[in-house]
Amino acid sequence: MTAKAIGIGALLGLLSGFFGLGGSSVATPLLRDLLGLAPLLALGTPLPVVVPGSIVAALTYARGGFVNGRVGLWTLVTALPFGVVGSLLSADVPSGALMFLTGLFVAVVGVVFFVQPLLRAGRPRPAGPAARQPRPLQRGRVLTIGAIIGLLSGLLANGGGVLLVPAYVLFLRLATKEAFGTSLVVVIGTALPTSIVHAWLGHVDYALLLPLAIAMIPMAWLGARLTLAIPPARIRQLYGLMLVTLAFFFTAGELRAARRQGAAEACAGAGALPDSSGLPVCASRIVGCRSSMIRWAMPTRSRLKLTK
Q1: Which long-range contacts (CB under 8 A, 24 or more apart) does 193-197 make?
Q2: Which residues pair with 280 in a beta bridge?
Q3: What are the structural domain ranges in the chain?
């Protein structure tokens, strides 16, 4: 398990620095599928290691001039309180539904980011100093984004980067790399209180924190350095492709988990009702090879013997 956790931490850090994500959106499905963590543990465990990794990546972006401090600080004004509210509500919201909605949102955003550079390929772009002129700060829009992202961040135990980057690019018209760097500032601010709340609620597996952090921190620095060296249009497409891939595995894993849980519940409910043979209905279905859960788990020869 430790080796897998280190591998997840390395991927978490690389994608965090490369795409300006806190990384928990990437770690959550991996912790569920590879380490078998329960949904709420998979949601809450990455948050404490998001903070140091995001600090390292944010400093790297800041040195390159790709952090908009005003946007980041005003986002935190509403993101912080709403993040705490979302964390407190997370225990009362169905975790499976949260996972599925996250995957759907990530897929839509990924398609948008992948297609946009293709649609804008023939349009002239500003160059030189004009391309880096500061835009007027739209406080109302920034505060609204902060409130929405903060609430969803708390509910999904997500630092917010996977949600903030699209919001900054699509609604505030920040440059892609600037959105990456600025989102990391907000991720640091939102991950601190939400990680404390999720730890208080018991949603953190402390045994995994050290192996995740050891790999994440240096890889976050490497990811940020790579992003600064790649053209913006290519970065947007890579970002979109990454999100679509992540959403596919994220949603597929949740659908598999939902099917397994449904089969288990159906079997447990049927087991309380005896049939004409005196056996519980669930047991008779096993003999008749009709319990999908047992059929999936048993070898083919054993299933054939039971049907005879």
Answers
A1: 193/80, 193/83, 193/84, 193/87, 194/47, 194/83, 194/84, 194/86, 194/87, 194/153, 194/154, 194/157, 194/159, 195/44, 195/47, 195/48, 195/50, 195/51, 197/84, 197/87, 197/88, 197/154
A2: 274
A3: 2-257, 271-307
Whole-prediction pTM = 0.70
Q: Which of 5-19, 84-98, 166-180, 284-298 has the lowest mean pLDDT?
A: 284-298
pLDDT in tens, 191-226: 787 788 878 888 888 888 888 989 999 999 999 999
